[in-house]
Amino acid sequence: MKRVDDFRLRFGKRELVPIIIGGMGVDISSRELALEAARLGGIGHISDAMLPTVTDRHYKTKFVSDKQKQYKLNILKADKSIVKFDLAQVAESTHLHVGKTMDAKRGDGMIFVNCMEKLTMNSPRETLRVRLCSALDAGIDGITLSAGLHLGSFALMEDNPRFRDAKLGIIVSSLRALQLFIRKNAKLNRLPDYIVVEGPLAGGHLGFGMDWAEYDLHNIVAEIVAHLKAEQLDIPVIAAGGVFTGSDAVDFLEKGCAAVQVATRFTVSKECGIPEKIQQEYFKANEQDIEVNMISPTGYPMRMLKNSPAIGAGIRPNCEAYGYLLDANGHCAYIEAFNREVALHPDAKKISVMDKTCLCTHMRNYDCWTCGQYTYRLKDTSHRNADGTYQILTAEHIFKDYQFSTDNKITLPPPRS
Ligand SMILES: Cc1cc2nc3c(=O)[nH]c(=O)nc-3n(C[C@H](O)[C@H](O)[C@H](O)COP(=O)(O)O)c2cc1C
Disulfide-capable partner of 172 in 14, 178, 183, 279 (CB 3.0 to 4.6 Å)? Predict the structure, then answer.
């Protein structure tokens, strides 16, 4: 019976344990979590989502209050088109977070950054260029392009000296999206170094419609593996979404995947950025407590716990401080939904907005409890304490369970004394 450890992910001469911890914004896949994956010989992701906010929290910068002060006269206005990011600050925050993470890296693994195209930041191309190039300049091992088709992203990095040496990958949920990406980048003579195929059971935003349940990761992976073979393209394929045990991972590795990308099981690790009180909500969740809804202003479906405080919250849009989802014209679907409710209930002290949420604020405050479909199985991965709470795990324990377990078993941690 094979274990994940019988396989290796190969990048040229480099060999890695084929376990990748996926990017989880905002700062859920913390630098501590990514560093553990690298120390153990796999790949960890940090996320570049809302980095000015993240560096304020960790490194005492003042990017958010500076931006809020600059645009304070705009706070009551519906038109947010003037609220722009200072590109030098975006670069600085990326340098800080990526640089400090890479400085702390130990072991044979790698650290990548997850970069979501849907963070359009009221200047999609310019801000994305700065995010990508600053991460390369700060020494990141690789960049995983996500939440979008990224048809222009390689071109944004083309002039960077590390464009051909850093590992650059793309997350897709269909063969069609992959074909578009490869076709669009053909003229740059640069293929992706890896392809993450993310199925409908993943956490965060989904690359499917609300008909997500009709898709199966195994089928999409098989289609993409067969296509690459037919085209004689030797690019590692990485399966993601619902890989809950070492045996699930082995199944994909035996079907031609080079690695798996996992996330949900690490949401209850001590290194993960989610505060412990909320981790207990993840442990407690049952299948009926999880939903896929359309409240994200990005227009993508998103999976989350139904008791997330973000659902129905009618807070004032906070774009002067954040504004990561403002499109190229300064619009965000939440602003429209909020203004509609205010107009409908002019005398209400507190309003509720059900169809959209202020995702920046709620992700920043850990009030949007996004999760993978198998979150309801987390309770089977740990011990229940006498007070009813669950024992938080270490990332090392979870990583090694994926690496060495067989027979669909999950090893429980040593009980805390
Ligand atoms: C809490 C959480 C947050 C996530 N946030 C992001 C994100 O910001 N960007 C992204 O590309 N994927 C995100 N994902 C998806 C993961 O990186 C990963 O590909 C997927 O969840 C793997 O499936 P699993 O959670 O079933 O193991 C997130 C997943 C979770 C569980």
Answer: 178
For ligand 1, the distance from its centroid to the CA atom of residue 140, given in whole angstroms, is 20
Query: Is the CB of residue 273 below 6 angstroms from any atom belonging to ligand 1?
Result: no
Question: For ligand 1, is residue 25 a contact (CB within 6 Å)?
Answer: yes
Closest ligand 1 atom, residue 241 Cα: 23
- Do the beta carbons of residue 341 and residue 353 sit within 8 Å? yes
pLDDT digits (tens, 9 = 90+) for 66-98: 999 999 999 989 899 999 999 999 999 999 999
Cα 20 to Cα 42: distance, rounded to the nearest angstrom: 6
Mutate to test the pocket of ligand 1, among 24, 244, 266 (most ligand atoms within 8 A of CB): 24
Domain 4-404 homologous superfamily, CATH: Aldolase class I (3.20.20.70)
Query: What are the b/e assignments for 215-237, b being 16+ CB within 10 Å?
Result: bebeebbeebbeebeeeeeebbb
Which residue has a Cα nearest atom 3 of ligand 1?
24
Q: Rounded to whole angstroms, how far apart are CA atoms 305 and 376? A: 10
Rg (CA), the chain: 21
Q: Residue count of the chain, please give it.
A: 417
Distance 263 CA to ligand 1 centre (A): 6
Element (H, E) at 196: strand 194-198
Q: Strand 237-240 vs strand 194-198: parallel, antiparallel, or unpaired?
A: parallel
Rounded to two decimals, the pTM is 0.98
The CA–CA distances, whole Å, from 98 to 42, 267, 309 equal 18, 21, 30
Query: Tens digits of per-residue pLDDT, 11-32?
Result: 999 999 999 999 999 999 999 9
Instruction: Give the 3-state DSSP-derived string for 166-181, with helices as H, strands as E and coil as C.
Output: CEEEEEECCHHHHHHH
**Is the C-beta atom of 268 inside 6 A of ligand 1?**
no
Give the domain ranges of the chain. 4-404
